[in-house]
Amino acid sequence: MQVRWSESHRVAVIDPQGDLGIRTMVEMKNTISSLLRDGCRVLIVDCCGVQRMEAMSLGVLVERLCRAREVDGTLALANLSADLTARLNELRVHSLFQTFDSVPSALEHLVGIGMAVRAEPAGRPGPALSGRRRRSAVSGHVPVLLAEVIQVLRPRIGGRYLDATVGLGGHAEAILQATGPTGVLWGIDRDEEALAVARERLAPFGNRVRLLHARYEALPQSVESALPFDGISFDLGVSSRQLDEAERGFSFGREGPLDMRMDRSAGETAADLIGRLSERELADLIFGWGEERWSRQIARAIVRTRQQQPIATTTALAGVVAGAVPRRLWPRHIHPATRTFQALRIAVNEELAGLGPALEQAANLLAPDGRAAVISFHSLEDRIVKQTWRKLASLAGMRIVTKRPITPTDAEATNNPRSRSAKLRVLERPAGAPEEA
Ligand SMILES: C[S@@+](CC[C@H](N)C(=O)[O-])C[C@H]1O[C@@H](n2cnc3c(N)ncnc32)[C@H](O)[C@@H]1O
Description:
437 residues; alpha/beta; Transcription Regulator spoIIAA; Rossmann fold; DNA polymerase, domain 1; 3 domains; seven-stranded mixed beta sheet; five-stranded mixed beta sheet; 17 helices; 14 strands; globular; binds S-adenosylmethionine
């Protein structure tokens, strides 16, 4: 087993070889321990040369990965075989590390997010750096930027965390795993159906989890008894489940009622909205929140169609929109109705109006050294996050941790196309910042 340790990168690359039995793993465990003692905070395990790994050895590796997490280390596994990926997924430890197709792509990402510096790794580049690739296969539902969120939130054992958009509980589960056995997580969501899924998924954590049906716009009132938090996460927008369920009405590709409400117990549906607004109001909405250049034509087509009969389903609306845009000018990589659906979803759920104030409130709920991490999925959301962080940094002494947003690796974007537009921005309340922002 080779270890290449780069002082300048603060990165160590280990490349175990062959059939990994318990002896090699104990050797690897000791190596990782001594690297951590020497101040290594970023560790890449290159699995390119691994032929087979015994179940017990895998257990030893995972134990070391946990240890590295406790000392605030960042972990990356490169060149994982599909088999090893599947077995690590079975152990539900994917939140402990990031996976990459190759060591160079791991280094590139770590440099990009400021965890490593750009310099040639010390020592002779071994076979691992020569770019031999093996595709990493991630199976099942993997939340967006999971490892990155854990890395920037730095969850600590016994800490208090808030997931303001708990959704299906993916990020929450990883936070609970990293803060056990005493850490506590409050999770809120406006969608009762998502909360039911999260409740079941997080049940093994018992009373370390508190779930609430609420909107993040009402944050301080909802979580008053729990303050302050060591970390708060927001993963904005809709969940994959909301998108995939035809009857929720979010997807132009699935026939269903034109609903689009994240909280089905309240508010106006998308069908009601497009039945009520004037042509001018519709055009403004589609342009403003969908950034759709054909907004006027689409609004006109909607009004003309609804004069014949109400537009009640997702596919009916998608057809009207597609028919309003000249075919030869349809966007190349997305359905012509994508932007209109985005605009309606934002309007139905009033997604943007309360975001800035909610982020400011969240910053006020942070303990000293606490961090807030926000994942956004389109430029309108990202702009609000960026501007709010800037305002809090200049007026309230907060620190912007991410000068540039963190984005998915190529491997994540390939494995989970929904992650492609994701941007993660992080804010920290330094120990000396005033109490109230
Ligand atoms: C992208 S999903 C979160 C997925 C989650 N991080 C996971 O790992 O499973 C976003 C969730 O935020 C919820 N949501 C959106 N806007 C909200 C708001 N204003 N208040 C509370 N929850 C909201 C949605 O209902 C959805 O379940």
